[in-house]
Amino acid sequence: MGVHHDHRGHGYGRAITVAAAAALRQMGSSTATVCTPSSNTGAVATYVSAGFDRLLDVADFRRPT
């Protein structure tokens, strides 16, 4: 999910996230999980405002090939 940078800060990301969670609920899901880098503060704020709880931070490791 993403919102074009010209339209951020108007609650569209939260609305999309809440609508997606509601659709999952209607399909029988009891939970939803999202993964985003903790450095993506905008996404973290969006998910928290949509009712998600922050569970843990996971370290990502990459190696050039």
Automatic annotation (TrEMBL):
One of its GO terms (molecular function) is acyltransferase activity, transferring groups other than amino-acyl groups. Transmembrane segments: none annotated. Residues 1-65 form the N-acetyltransferase domain. Keywords: Ribonucleoprotein, Ribosomal protein. Signal peptide: none annotated. One of its GO terms (cellular component) is ribosome. Gene3D superfamilies: 3.40.630.30. It comes from the Bacteria. This is Ribosomal protein S18 acetylase RimI-like enzyme. It comes from Actinoplanes campanulatus.
